[in-house]
């Protein structure tokens, strides 16, 4: 499920970036550095996996995810708006987003290896 989500997200980003040239987009005033984006995205994907595994009804799972994501942003001292603006900026600069997601995928893969988690097969 996680890999499907990542693939869908990358495809969506590709469509979004096709409409605008990277040089046309100015960075937001509070652009998050790539390293911080990687850390946030890794934690968001782990949070999604934990909520998916909780077997809660979908409305409860969504509420739990949103609350925990809010707590995550607070821990990282980032607002949702700053995260969204930074993500949009990196999405327009698709090479940057590719680099970010390569690192996210590597980090998640290393965590799977460390904890002995095997990815689900379709």
TrEMBL record:
Residues 28-113 form the DUF4296 domain. Residues 1-18 form the signal peptide. It comes from the Bacteria. Transmembrane segments: none annotated. InterPro entries: DUF4296. Keywords: Signal. The keyword Signal applies. This is DUF4296 domain-containing protein.
């Amino acid at each position: 499920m996680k890999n499907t989500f990542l693939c869908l997200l990358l495809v969506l980003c590709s469509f979004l970036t096709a409409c605008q040239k990277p040089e046309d987009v100015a960075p937001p005033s509070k652009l998050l550095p790539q390293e911080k984006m990687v850390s946030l995205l890794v934690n968001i994907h782990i949070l999604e996996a934990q909520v998916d595994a909780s077997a809660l009804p979908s409305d409860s799972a969504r509420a739990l995810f949103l609350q925990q994501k809010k707590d995550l942003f607070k821990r990282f001292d980032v607002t949702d708006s700053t995260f969204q603006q930074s993500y949009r900026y990196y999405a327009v600069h698709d090479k940057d987003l590719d680099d970010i997601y390569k690192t996210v995928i590597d980090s998640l893969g290393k965590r799977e290896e460390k904890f002995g988690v095997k990815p689900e097969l379709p």
